[in-house]
Design a protein that fits this description.
258 residues, alpha/beta, TIM Barrel, 9 helices, 38% helix
């Protein structure tokens, strides 16, 4: 299974058995500036792991546009560097940076994704309207594709974004939350999205799927998510594996030979 979004360099997972780390394939996501060298080093050391450079909205108040752009420019030659993100908007807690700060940082990373010809990985939590508005307003900078990571919105909202971004390759990734009873509406969301635009992720160590909910999410738990996605779409786990891997390779512009 190609895991489109995880954080294996998180302190809760970095001590994972080396066999697990070597066998897991997918994308290690950069989410804060200070840890980007670790993220890139991890991808370089693991054959089947790629990486992104991004600053999560939780760190928008300490974001340095110059420092981040310099890091991106300096690492463009690294073949494992496949996207900008995760970046976006998160209004879930009151102690997060202001909406104005988050939007400014989000828009700057959209600008960099366009400037350096990288697809964009988007984090959006309790912030659908502003997220959609920012993406639509900047649609001319999304030519390299955009991925809504951990899609947690309705079928209507997914279809709205697809329709508003006609001509843009818009992808949606689903994680362990699709196994939660409280998120059963996501089954309709999944069914509403074209099959060639669906990815699977763990977001490890976050969002462990049922029956592991509440635990630290481990890479191998992706199979629980794949089973639910297979049931919802009327497919086998093998078909979900092939479908989501092909889509991830296309979005991240990864050559199968790698």
């Amino acid at each position: 299974m190609f895991d489109s979004h995880f954080h294996l360099t998180d302190p809760r997972l970095i001590t994972l058995d080396e066999v697990v780390q070597k066998e897991h394939q997918g994308v290690e996501i950069g989410a804060d500036f200070e840890s980007l060298p670790i993220v890139f080093g991890f991808a370089k050391e693991h054959k089947n792991v790629y990486c992104t450079a991004g600053v999560h909205p939780a760190y928008a108040d300490v974001y340095s546009a110059n420092d981040f752009e310099n890091f991106v420019a300096e690492h463009l030659s690294q073949p494992k560097f496949v996207a900008i993100g995760e970046c976006g908007l998160d209004y879930h807690r009151e102690d997060l940076p202001t909406r104005e700060q988050q939007i400014a940082v989000f828009e700057h990373q959209i600008f960099l994704a366009d400037r350096y010809h990288k697809p964009l990985v988007v984090h959006t939590r309790d912030a659908w309207e502003d997220t959609a508005n920012v993406l639509i307003a900047n649609r001319d900078k999304l030519k390299n594709g955009v991925l809504i990571h951990c899609m947690s919105y309705t079928a209507e909202q997914a279809c709205f974004l697809i329709n508003q971004l006609t001509g843009i390759d818009v992808y949606f990734a689903f994680g362990g939350h699709i196994t939660y009873k409280s998120k059963s509406y996501l089954h309709d969301t999944l069914r509403s999205i074209p099959l060639n635009r669906i990815l699977i992720e763990t977001d490890a160590p976050y969002l462990a799927p049922v029956p592991k909910r509440g635990e630290v999410n481990l890479p191998q738990y992706i199979n629980y998510t794949a089973q639910v996605m297979a049931n919802v779409l009327g497919k086998t786990i093998s078909e979900i594996e092939s479908l989501t891997k092909e889509n991830a390779y296309r979005f991240y512009k990864i050559k199968a030979a790698h």
